[in-house]
């Protein structure tokens, strides 16, 4: 019972990732693409959680934490680039 | 140009950097028996430093972190090679490692391995390389 539920949830997550990939390729503006990338990262984290329930292992937990950190930093870097045209400033107060 | 006021980003970063650095140290020490190790621990550490660079600016971070990252890379590779050579001094093959169990005051019975010293070198080399790459591509032309 629970395994078929997990498989259905995985299928919907894959559909969601495919929709985000469509937005990533087609997206008219760059902020759409950034949002789609962040959405794909969150969906991948959810899919890894479901897979680790499915396999009854805790070996993937650090992978989930690392993916969350990396997608967070990537989204912040893209937002900085869109807002100021420069990712890392050499002096903030100039 | 008006001065940006990103207080939410700064507040989140001040908490998240502590978590990421703790996670980097955990990954570094988990590498002996579980997924982890010097390479990915160094990459997580470099991710925390990148988040600090993104939130603040290079000069104020460098004032608190006064290492030359190129020198850090060289020191890391040197540590890794020297721990490999250390096996030869004891009539063992290159990169030989030894481990034993000790009774430490707080941790109890702990396994201490010489591979951790090699991993320290790898982590320093990875941190130095990643930060040199990031700071090079962020420079003004």
Structural class of chain A: mainly alpha
Query: Can you count the helices of chain B?
Result: 5
What is the averaged pLDDT score of chain A?
Answer: 89
Low-confidence stretches of chain A: none
Q: How many strands in all of chain B? A: 2
Helix content of chain A: over 70%
Helical run tally of chain A: 3
Strand content of chain B: 5-15%
Strand arrangement, largest sheet of chain B? 1-2
Helix content of chain B: 55-70%
Quaternary status: heterodimer
List unreliable stretches of 5+ residues of chain B.
none
- Reading the helices and strands of chain B in chain order gives HHHHEEH
Structural class designation of chain B: mainly alpha
Overall tally of structural domains of chain B: 1
Overall mean pLDDT of chain B stands at: 86
Radius of gyration of chain B: 18 Å
Q: The biggest beta sheet of chain A, please?
A: none
What is the total domain count of chain A? 1
